[in-house]
Amino acid sequence: MIYLDSESEEPLYKQLYGQLKHKIIDGEYPKGKRLSATREMAKTLCIGRNTVEAAYGQLCVEGYVTSRQGSGYVVQDILDGILDYPYKSVAKIELPAIQNEKPRHSPDKPPAYKFDFQYGNLSPHNFPRAIWRRLTADALISLDSKNISVYGDKQGEYALRYEIVQYLHESRGINCVPEQVVLCSGHQDALGIFCVLLADGNRTLAIEDPGYDFTRIIFENNGYTIAPVPVDDCGIRLDELGSSSAKLVYTTPSHQFPLGMVMPIGHRMKLLQWAEQTGGIIIEDDYDSELRYHTRPIPALQSIDRHGSVIYLGTFSKALSPGLRMGYFVLPEWLLPKYHDIFKRYKSSVPWIQQQIMNLYIAGGHWERYLRKYCLANKKKRDILIHIIQEEMGNNVRILGDNAGLHILLDFLDGESQESLIEQARAYQVKVYPTRHLWHQQENAMENLIMVGFSGLTEKAIVEGVKLLRQAWLG
Predict the structure, then answer these.
(1) CATH 1.10.10.10: which residues of the chain?
(2) Structural domain 129-364, CATH architecture
(3) Which residues contact 79 (CB under 8 A, 6 or more apart)?
(4) Which of 191, 346, 402, 407 is spaced 20 to 30 A from 449 at the CA atom?
(5) Burial category of 429 from C-beta neighbours within 10 Å (exposed 0-12, middle 13-18, buried 19 and up)
(6) pLDDT digits (tens, 9 = 90+) for 412-448
(7) Architecture per CATH, 115-123+369-474
(8) CA-closest candidate to residue 332, choices 287, 257, 276, 289
(9) What residues contact 411, with CB distance under 8 A and at least 6 apart?
Protein backbone atom coordinates (compact mmCIF):
# COMPACT_ATOMS: atom_id res chain seq x y z
CA MET A 1 0.00 0.00 0.00
CA ILE A 2 1.22 3.47 -0.90
CA TYR A 3 0.58 6.28 1.57
CA LEU A 4 1.35 9.94 0.87
CA ASP A 5 1.48 12.49 3.67
CA SER A 6 0.22 15.85 2.43
CA GLU A 7 1.45 17.49 5.66
CA SER A 8 5.04 16.40 5.09
CA GLU A 9 7.69 18.86 3.94
CA GLU A 10 8.87 16.29 1.40
CA PRO A 11 7.22 16.81 -2.02
CA LEU A 12 4.54 14.30 -2.97
CA TYR A 13 6.40 13.11 -6.07
CA LYS A 14 9.46 12.28 -3.92
CA GLN A 15 7.31 10.34 -1.44
CA LEU A 16 5.78 8.33 -4.29
CA TYR A 17 9.16 7.79 -5.96
CA GLY A 18 10.74 6.60 -2.66
CA GLN A 19 8.00 4.10 -1.85
CA LEU A 20 7.96 2.64 -5.36
CA LYS A 21 11.76 2.34 -5.31
CA HIS A 22 11.65 0.43 -2.00
CA LYS A 23 9.05 -1.97 -3.36
CA ILE A 24 11.25 -2.69 -6.39
CA ILE A 25 14.42 -3.25 -4.32
CA ASP A 26 12.55 -5.45 -1.82
CA GLY A 27 11.26 -7.61 -4.64
CA GLU A 28 7.64 -6.77 -3.94
CA TYR A 29 7.52 -5.40 -7.49
CA PRO A 30 9.45 -8.06 -9.49
CA LYS A 31 11.10 -7.74 -12.88
CA GLY A 32 8.52 -7.32 -15.63
CA LYS A 33 5.77 -5.91 -13.42
CA ARG A 34 3.99 -3.01 -15.04
CA LEU A 35 3.29 -0.01 -12.84
CA SER A 36 -0.21 1.43 -12.76
CA ALA A 37 -0.94 3.91 -15.52
CA THR A 38 -0.22 7.50 -14.52
CA ARG A 39 -3.88 8.48 -14.84
CA GLU A 40 -5.01 5.48 -12.73
CA MET A 41 -2.32 6.06 -10.07
CA ALA A 42 -3.23 9.76 -9.85
CA LYS A 43 -6.91 8.92 -9.43
CA THR A 44 -6.19 6.28 -6.77
CA LEU A 45 -3.94 8.56 -4.68
CA CYS A 46 -6.00 11.72 -5.33
CA ILE A 47 -2.99 13.63 -6.63
CA GLY A 48 -2.13 15.36 -9.88
CA ARG A 49 -1.06 13.34 -12.91
CA ASN A 50 2.06 15.52 -13.23
CA THR A 51 3.12 14.40 -9.73
CA VAL A 52 2.93 10.75 -10.80
CA GLU A 53 4.80 11.44 -14.04
CA ALA A 54 7.58 13.18 -12.10
CA ALA A 55 7.98 10.16 -9.76
CA TYR A 56 7.94 7.69 -12.65
CA GLY A 57 10.42 9.84 -14.59
CA GLN A 58 12.90 9.77 -11.70
CA LEU A 59 12.60 5.97 -11.50
CA CYS A 60 13.35 5.79 -15.21
CA VAL A 61 16.43 8.01 -14.87
CA GLU A 62 17.81 5.76 -12.10
CA GLY A 63 17.10 2.58 -14.04
CA TYR A 64 14.44 1.06 -11.81
CA VAL A 65 11.82 1.12 -14.54
CA THR A 66 11.73 1.67 -18.25
CA SER A 67 9.09 3.35 -20.35
CA ARG A 68 7.83 1.32 -23.30
CA GLN A 69 5.54 2.61 -26.01
CA GLY A 70 2.11 1.12 -25.43
CA SER A 71 3.23 -0.79 -22.31
CA GLY A 72 3.66 1.99 -19.79
CA TYR A 73 6.34 1.73 -17.11
CA VAL A 74 7.88 -1.73 -16.54
CA VAL A 75 10.15 -2.77 -13.64
CA GLN A 76 13.73 -3.63 -14.63
CA ASP A 77 16.13 -6.28 -13.26
CA ILE A 78 17.88 -4.98 -10.11
CA LEU A 79 20.93 -7.01 -9.03
CA ASP A 80 20.91 -7.87 -5.32
CA GLY A 81 23.54 -6.19 -3.20
CA ILE A 82 24.66 -3.50 -5.69
CA LEU A 83 22.89 -0.66 -3.94
CA ASP A 84 22.87 -0.08 -0.22
CA TYR A 85 20.27 2.44 0.78
CA PRO A 86 19.95 3.85 4.31
CA TYR A 87 16.32 2.95 4.83
CA LYS A 88 14.47 0.29 6.76
CA SER A 89 12.86 -2.30 4.54
CA VAL A 90 9.18 -3.00 4.98
CA ALA A 91 8.79 -6.21 6.96
CA LYS A 92 7.70 -9.22 4.96
CA ILE A 93 4.70 -11.20 6.16
CA GLU A 94 5.71 -14.75 7.01
CA LEU A 95 3.08 -17.25 5.92
CA PRO A 96 2.49 -20.34 8.07
CA ALA A 97 4.70 -23.21 7.01
CA ILE A 98 1.73 -25.29 5.90
CA GLN A 99 0.83 -22.69 3.28
CA ASN A 100 4.31 -22.82 1.81
CA GLU A 101 4.23 -26.57 1.35
CA LYS A 102 3.43 -28.11 -1.99
CA PRO A 103 0.03 -29.78 -2.32
CA ARG A 104 0.06 -33.33 -1.04
CA HIS A 105 -0.77 -34.71 -4.46
CA SER A 106 1.30 -32.39 -6.64
CA PRO A 107 2.82 -34.07 -9.74
CA ASP A 108 6.39 -33.97 -8.41
CA LYS A 109 5.48 -35.19 -4.92
CA PRO A 110 3.62 -38.51 -4.77
CA PRO A 111 1.24 -39.18 -1.87
CA ALA A 112 2.89 -40.40 1.32
CA TYR A 113 0.36 -43.25 1.55
CA LYS A 114 -1.00 -45.68 -1.01
CA PHE A 115 -3.93 -46.59 1.22
CA ASP A 116 -5.54 -44.34 3.82
CA PHE A 117 -7.99 -46.06 6.19
CA GLN A 118 -9.37 -42.77 7.46
CA TYR A 119 -12.64 -42.67 9.33
CA GLY A 120 -15.34 -40.32 8.08
CA ASN A 121 -14.25 -39.68 4.49
CA LEU A 122 -16.75 -41.01 1.95
CA SER A 123 -16.10 -42.37 -1.51
CA PRO A 124 -16.60 -39.58 -4.08
CA HIS A 125 -18.20 -42.16 -6.39
CA ASN A 126 -21.17 -42.53 -4.06
CA PHE A 127 -22.31 -38.93 -4.20
CA PRO A 128 -25.39 -38.57 -6.46
CA ARG A 129 -23.85 -36.02 -8.82
CA ALA A 130 -26.31 -36.33 -11.69
CA ILE A 131 -29.40 -35.97 -9.50
CA TRP A 132 -27.78 -33.20 -7.45
CA ARG A 133 -26.93 -31.27 -10.63
CA ARG A 134 -30.50 -31.58 -11.90
CA LEU A 135 -32.02 -30.59 -8.57
CA THR A 136 -29.70 -27.58 -8.39
CA ALA A 137 -31.13 -26.36 -11.67
CA ASP A 138 -34.67 -27.09 -10.45
CA ALA A 139 -34.03 -25.10 -7.27
CA LEU A 140 -32.74 -22.09 -9.20
CA ILE A 141 -35.75 -21.94 -11.55
CA SER A 142 -38.34 -22.68 -8.89
CA LEU A 143 -40.76 -20.10 -7.53
CA ASP A 144 -38.82 -20.25 -4.25
CA SER A 145 -35.57 -19.15 -5.90
CA LYS A 146 -36.29 -15.57 -4.82
CA ASN A 147 -35.25 -16.70 -1.35
CA ILE A 148 -31.63 -16.80 -2.49
CA SER A 149 -31.68 -12.99 -2.28
CA VAL A 150 -32.93 -12.73 1.30
CA TYR A 151 -31.86 -13.83 4.76
CA GLY A 152 -33.79 -16.96 5.65
CA ASP A 153 -35.31 -18.28 8.85
CA LYS A 154 -32.68 -18.84 11.54
CA GLN A 155 -33.97 -22.42 11.91
CA GLY A 156 -33.70 -23.13 8.20
CA GLU A 157 -36.26 -23.46 5.42
CA TYR A 158 -39.60 -24.72 6.70
CA ALA A 159 -40.08 -27.10 3.74
CA LEU A 160 -36.83 -28.92 4.51
CA ARG A 161 -37.59 -29.07 8.22
CA TYR A 162 -40.95 -30.62 7.36
CA GLU A 163 -39.24 -33.32 5.25
CA ILE A 164 -36.76 -34.02 8.05
CA VAL A 165 -39.64 -34.44 10.52
CA GLN A 166 -41.29 -37.02 8.24
CA TYR A 167 -38.01 -38.87 7.78
CA LEU A 168 -37.18 -38.93 11.48
CA HIS A 169 -40.64 -40.18 12.38
CA GLU A 170 -40.49 -43.05 9.89
CA SER A 171 -36.85 -44.07 10.40
CA ARG A 172 -36.15 -43.22 14.05
CA GLY A 173 -39.60 -43.11 15.68
CA ILE A 174 -39.12 -39.45 16.64
CA ASN A 175 -42.20 -37.36 17.36
CA CYS A 176 -41.68 -33.67 16.68
CA VAL A 177 -42.91 -30.80 14.52
CA PRO A 178 -40.93 -28.58 12.11
CA GLU A 179 -40.93 -25.78 14.70
CA GLN A 180 -38.63 -27.94 16.87
CA VAL A 181 -36.06 -28.59 14.12
CA VAL A 182 -33.05 -26.34 13.56
CA LEU A 183 -30.74 -26.69 10.54
CA CYS A 184 -27.04 -26.23 11.28
CA SER A 185 -23.74 -26.47 9.43
CA GLY A 186 -22.61 -29.67 11.06
CA HIS A 187 -21.72 -31.01 14.50
CA GLN A 188 -19.47 -28.09 15.41
CA ASP A 189 -22.15 -25.49 14.73
CA ALA A 190 -24.80 -27.43 16.68
CA LEU A 191 -22.64 -27.90 19.77
CA GLY A 192 -21.69 -24.23 19.72
CA ILE A 193 -25.40 -23.38 19.89
CA PHE A 194 -25.92 -25.83 22.75
CA CYS A 195 -23.06 -24.25 24.69
CA VAL A 196 -24.83 -20.89 24.59
CA LEU A 197 -28.35 -22.25 25.03
CA LEU A 198 -27.48 -24.26 28.16
CA ALA A 199 -24.92 -21.90 29.68
CA ASP A 200 -27.06 -20.61 32.56
CA GLY A 201 -27.39 -24.03 34.20
CA ASN A 202 -24.90 -26.51 35.57
CA ARG A 203 -21.85 -26.02 33.32
CA THR A 204 -20.54 -29.56 33.77
CA LEU A 205 -20.82 -31.89 30.79
CA ALA A 206 -20.68 -35.66 31.28
CA ILE A 207 -19.21 -37.42 28.26
CA GLU A 208 -18.56 -41.05 27.41
CA ASP A 209 -14.97 -42.07 28.00
CA PRO A 210 -13.77 -42.95 25.42
CA GLY A 211 -15.84 -40.73 23.18
CA TYR A 212 -15.81 -38.15 20.44
CA ASP A 213 -12.96 -35.85 21.46
CA PHE A 214 -14.15 -32.91 19.36
CA THR A 215 -17.25 -32.61 21.56
CA ARG A 216 -15.03 -32.30 24.62
CA ILE A 217 -12.89 -29.65 22.92
CA ILE A 218 -15.89 -27.51 21.92
CA PHE A 219 -17.42 -27.52 25.39
CA GLU A 220 -14.06 -26.89 27.07
CA ASN A 221 -13.49 -23.93 24.76
CA ASN A 222 -16.82 -22.55 25.91
CA GLY A 223 -15.96 -22.74 29.61
CA TYR A 224 -17.61 -26.03 30.54
CA THR A 225 -16.13 -28.55 32.97
CA ILE A 226 -15.83 -32.06 31.56
CA ALA A 227 -16.86 -35.08 33.64
CA PRO A 228 -15.60 -38.23 31.86
CA VAL A 229 -17.81 -41.28 32.49
CA PRO A 230 -16.56 -44.79 31.63
CA VAL A 231 -18.56 -47.05 29.32
CA ASP A 232 -19.34 -50.75 29.51
CA ASP A 233 -21.17 -53.18 27.22
CA CYS A 234 -24.40 -51.17 27.65
CA GLY A 235 -22.87 -47.77 26.94
CA ILE A 236 -22.33 -44.98 29.43
CA ARG A 237 -22.20 -46.25 33.04
CA LEU A 238 -25.17 -44.87 34.91
CA ASP A 239 -23.71 -45.42 38.36
CA GLU A 240 -20.72 -43.24 37.46
CA LEU A 241 -23.02 -40.66 35.86
CA GLY A 242 -25.18 -40.53 38.97
CA SER A 243 -22.19 -39.92 41.22
CA SER A 244 -20.99 -37.00 39.09
CA SER A 245 -22.20 -33.45 39.51
CA ALA A 246 -23.23 -33.21 35.86
CA LYS A 247 -26.76 -32.29 34.79
CA LEU A 248 -25.86 -32.42 31.11
CA VAL A 249 -24.69 -35.54 29.29
CA TYR A 250 -23.55 -36.19 25.71
CA THR A 251 -24.04 -39.75 24.49
CA THR A 252 -24.03 -41.85 21.30
CA PRO A 253 -26.52 -44.59 22.29
CA SER A 254 -27.25 -46.11 18.87
CA HIS A 255 -23.58 -46.78 18.08
CA GLN A 256 -21.14 -45.73 20.78
CA PHE A 257 -18.15 -43.91 19.38
CA PRO A 258 -15.60 -45.39 19.05
CA LEU A 259 -16.19 -48.81 20.66
CA GLY A 260 -19.43 -49.55 18.82
CA MET A 261 -21.76 -50.97 21.51
CA VAL A 262 -25.52 -50.31 21.31
CA MET A 263 -27.37 -49.07 24.39
CA PRO A 264 -30.19 -51.57 25.21
CA ILE A 265 -33.71 -50.39 25.91
CA GLY A 266 -33.48 -51.01 29.67
CA HIS A 267 -30.38 -48.86 29.92
CA ARG A 268 -32.05 -46.15 27.86
CA MET A 269 -35.03 -46.05 30.18
CA LYS A 270 -32.73 -45.72 33.19
CA LEU A 271 -30.82 -42.88 31.52
CA LEU A 272 -34.11 -41.06 30.89
CA GLN A 273 -35.07 -41.70 34.51
CA TRP A 274 -31.78 -40.11 35.63
CA ALA A 275 -32.63 -37.02 33.57
CA GLU A 276 -36.16 -36.82 35.01
CA GLN A 277 -35.01 -37.18 38.62
CA THR A 278 -32.11 -34.74 38.38
CA GLY A 279 -33.55 -32.24 35.92
CA GLY A 280 -30.78 -33.27 33.57
CA ILE A 281 -30.55 -32.83 29.80
CA ILE A 282 -29.35 -35.52 27.38
CA ILE A 283 -27.69 -34.65 24.07
CA GLU A 284 -28.30 -37.69 21.85
CA ASP A 285 -25.85 -37.77 18.93
CA ASP A 286 -27.35 -40.16 16.38
CA TYR A 287 -24.41 -39.63 14.04
CA ASP A 288 -24.59 -42.82 11.92
CA SER A 289 -27.99 -44.28 12.72
CA GLU A 290 -28.62 -45.11 9.04
CA LEU A 291 -25.60 -47.40 8.83
CA ARG A 292 -26.56 -50.71 10.43
CA TYR A 293 -25.47 -53.98 8.87
CA HIS A 294 -26.97 -56.80 10.96
CA THR A 295 -30.04 -55.42 12.71
CA ARG A 296 -32.86 -53.01 12.03
CA PRO A 297 -32.31 -49.42 13.15
CA ILE A 298 -33.03 -48.97 16.83
CA PRO A 299 -35.57 -46.26 17.79
CA ALA A 300 -33.87 -43.11 18.99
CA LEU A 301 -33.64 -42.26 22.66
CA GLN A 302 -35.75 -39.18 21.92
CA SER A 303 -38.59 -41.38 20.68
CA ILE A 304 -39.19 -42.80 24.16
CA ASP A 305 -38.60 -39.54 26.04
CA ARG A 306 -41.82 -38.37 27.73
CA HIS A 307 -40.44 -35.44 29.71
CA GLY A 308 -38.55 -33.35 27.14
CA SER A 309 -35.14 -34.38 28.44
CA VAL A 310 -33.47 -35.14 25.09
CA ILE A 311 -31.91 -32.86 22.48
CA TYR A 312 -31.59 -34.97 19.34
CA LEU A 313 -28.63 -34.33 17.00
CA GLY A 314 -28.54 -35.69 13.44
CA THR A 315 -26.37 -35.20 10.36
CA PHE A 316 -26.15 -35.74 6.62
CA SER A 317 -22.34 -35.91 6.79
CA LYS A 318 -21.90 -39.62 7.51
CA ALA A 319 -24.18 -40.87 4.74
CA LEU A 320 -24.37 -38.20 2.04
CA SER A 321 -21.50 -35.73 2.20
CA PRO A 322 -19.35 -34.17 4.94
CA GLY A 323 -18.49 -31.41 2.47
CA LEU A 324 -22.08 -30.12 2.44
CA ARG A 325 -21.71 -29.20 6.14
CA MET A 326 -25.38 -29.85 6.86
CA GLY A 327 -26.93 -31.25 10.00
CA TYR A 328 -29.91 -30.63 12.23
CA PHE A 329 -31.12 -30.94 15.80
CA VAL A 330 -34.49 -31.30 17.50
CA LEU A 331 -35.15 -29.22 20.61
CA PRO A 332 -37.64 -30.15 23.35
CA GLU A 333 -40.67 -27.85 23.28
CA TRP A 334 -39.83 -26.25 26.61
CA LEU A 335 -36.48 -25.03 25.25
CA LEU A 336 -37.95 -23.28 22.20
CA PRO A 337 -38.84 -19.95 23.92
CA LYS A 338 -35.32 -19.71 25.31
CA TYR A 339 -33.81 -20.58 21.92
CA HIS A 340 -35.87 -17.88 20.19
CA ASP A 341 -34.97 -15.32 22.83
CA ILE A 342 -31.21 -15.93 22.70
CA PHE A 343 -30.90 -16.40 18.93
CA LYS A 344 -33.62 -14.00 17.75
CA ARG A 345 -31.12 -11.97 15.68
CA TYR A 346 -29.32 -14.98 14.20
CA LYS A 347 -29.55 -16.21 10.61
CA SER A 348 -29.34 -19.76 9.31
CA SER A 349 -25.75 -20.95 8.85
CA VAL A 350 -26.73 -23.25 5.95
CA PRO A 351 -26.95 -21.65 2.47
CA TRP A 352 -30.45 -21.48 1.03
CA ILE A 353 -29.51 -23.26 -2.20
CA GLN A 354 -28.22 -26.31 -0.32
CA GLN A 355 -31.33 -26.42 1.82
CA GLN A 356 -33.59 -26.23 -1.23
CA ILE A 357 -31.70 -28.98 -3.05
CA MET A 358 -31.84 -31.21 0.02
CA ASN A 359 -35.55 -30.50 0.35
CA LEU A 360 -36.16 -31.58 -3.26
CA TYR A 361 -33.88 -34.58 -2.76
CA ILE A 362 -35.82 -35.93 0.22
CA ALA A 363 -39.27 -34.99 -1.07
CA GLY A 364 -38.58 -36.72 -4.39
CA GLY A 365 -37.76 -40.02 -2.69
CA HIS A 366 -34.10 -39.86 -3.70
CA TRP A 367 -32.81 -39.85 -0.12
CA GLU A 368 -34.55 -43.09 0.80
CA ARG A 369 -33.37 -44.84 -2.38
CA TYR A 370 -29.85 -43.50 -1.90
CA LEU A 371 -29.67 -44.76 1.68
CA ARG A 372 -30.60 -48.30 0.65
CA LYS A 373 -27.92 -48.30 -2.03
CA TYR A 374 -25.35 -46.62 0.20
CA CYS A 375 -25.87 -49.02 3.10
CA LEU A 376 -25.53 -52.03 0.81
CA ALA A 377 -22.30 -50.63 -0.65
CA ASN A 378 -20.78 -50.00 2.77
CA LYS A 379 -21.98 -53.36 4.11
CA LYS A 380 -20.14 -55.00 1.23
CA LYS A 381 -16.99 -53.03 2.03
CA ARG A 382 -17.33 -53.84 5.70
CA ASP A 383 -17.81 -57.57 4.97
CA ILE A 384 -14.75 -57.61 2.70
CA LEU A 385 -12.70 -55.80 5.33
CA ILE A 386 -13.70 -58.24 8.07
CA HIS A 387 -13.08 -61.25 5.85
CA ILE A 388 -9.64 -60.15 4.65
CA ILE A 389 -8.54 -59.21 8.18
CA GLN A 390 -9.57 -62.60 9.51
CA GLU A 391 -7.91 -64.33 6.57
CA GLU A 392 -4.65 -62.38 6.78
CA MET A 393 -4.30 -61.83 10.53
CA GLY A 394 -6.29 -64.64 12.11
CA ASN A 395 -6.17 -64.77 15.88
CA ASN A 396 -3.58 -62.02 16.18
CA VAL A 397 -6.28 -59.36 16.36
CA ARG A 398 -9.76 -58.95 17.78
CA ILE A 399 -12.29 -56.90 15.78
CA LEU A 400 -14.53 -54.47 17.67
CA GLY A 401 -17.49 -52.30 16.66
CA ASP A 402 -18.22 -54.04 13.39
CA ASN A 403 -22.04 -54.07 13.43
CA ALA A 404 -22.58 -50.49 12.21
CA GLY A 405 -20.91 -47.28 11.10
CA LEU A 406 -17.91 -46.54 8.94
CA HIS A 407 -15.03 -47.92 11.00
CA ILE A 408 -13.85 -50.87 13.01
CA LEU A 409 -11.28 -51.20 15.79
CA LEU A 410 -8.42 -53.68 15.81
CA ASP A 411 -7.38 -54.92 19.24
CA PHE A 412 -3.90 -56.46 19.06
CA LEU A 413 -3.74 -59.35 21.46
CA ASP A 414 0.04 -59.32 21.81
CA GLY A 415 -0.12 -55.81 23.23
CA GLU A 416 1.76 -53.82 20.59
CA SER A 417 1.63 -50.05 21.13
CA GLN A 418 -0.37 -47.78 18.86
CA GLU A 419 2.69 -45.75 17.90
CA SER A 420 4.64 -48.83 16.88
CA LEU A 421 1.76 -50.24 14.83
CA ILE A 422 1.18 -46.93 13.05
CA GLU A 423 4.87 -46.52 12.20
CA GLN A 424 5.12 -50.08 10.91
CA ALA A 425 2.10 -49.48 8.68
CA ARG A 426 3.56 -46.20 7.48
CA ALA A 427 6.69 -47.99 6.29
CA TYR A 428 4.41 -49.90 3.91
CA GLN A 429 2.59 -46.69 2.82
CA VAL A 430 -0.61 -47.54 4.67
CA LYS A 431 -2.21 -45.08 7.07
CA VAL A 432 -4.18 -46.23 10.11
CA TYR A 433 -5.22 -44.20 13.12
CA PRO A 434 -4.66 -44.08 16.89
CA THR A 435 -7.42 -44.09 19.48
CA ARG A 436 -5.67 -42.87 22.64
CA HIS A 437 -6.83 -39.28 22.11
CA LEU A 438 -10.45 -40.44 22.39
CA TRP A 439 -9.95 -41.13 26.11
CA HIS A 440 -10.32 -38.08 28.33
CA GLN A 441 -8.53 -39.99 31.10
CA GLN A 442 -5.47 -41.07 29.15
CA GLU A 443 -4.32 -43.50 31.80
CA ASN A 444 -7.37 -45.67 31.01
CA ALA A 445 -6.75 -45.79 27.26
CA MET A 446 -6.35 -49.13 25.50
CA GLU A 447 -2.78 -48.90 24.21
CA ASN A 448 -3.06 -51.53 21.49
CA LEU A 449 -6.23 -50.32 19.75
CA ILE A 450 -6.14 -49.10 16.13
CA MET A 451 -8.98 -47.42 14.21
CA VAL A 452 -9.57 -48.53 10.62
CA GLY A 453 -12.10 -46.66 8.47
CA PHE A 454 -13.30 -48.10 5.18
CA SER A 455 -15.90 -45.79 3.60
CA GLY A 456 -13.44 -43.79 1.51
CA LEU A 457 -11.71 -46.80 -0.10
CA THR A 458 -12.69 -49.10 -2.93
CA GLU A 459 -13.16 -52.80 -2.28
CA LYS A 460 -9.93 -53.56 -4.16
CA ALA A 461 -8.02 -50.98 -2.14
CA ILE A 462 -9.33 -52.48 1.12
CA VAL A 463 -8.00 -55.91 0.19
CA GLU A 464 -4.61 -54.64 -0.98
CA GLY A 465 -4.28 -52.32 2.00
CA VAL A 466 -4.97 -55.07 4.54
CA LYS A 467 -2.46 -57.38 2.85
CA LEU A 468 0.18 -54.69 3.24
CA LEU A 469 -0.83 -54.26 6.88
CA ARG A 470 -0.35 -57.98 7.44
CA GLN A 471 3.17 -57.69 6.02
CA ALA A 472 3.88 -54.65 8.16
CA TRP A 473 2.59 -56.15 11.41
CA LEU A 474 3.08 -59.89 11.06
CA GLY A 475 5.88 -60.25 8.55
Answers:
(1) 12-93
(2) 3-Layer(aba) Sandwich (3.40)
(3) none
(4) 191
(5) middle
(6) 988 789 999 999 999 999 999 999 999 999 888 898 9
(7) Alpha-Beta Complex (3.90)
(8) 276
(9) 397, 398, 399, 400, 446, 448, 449
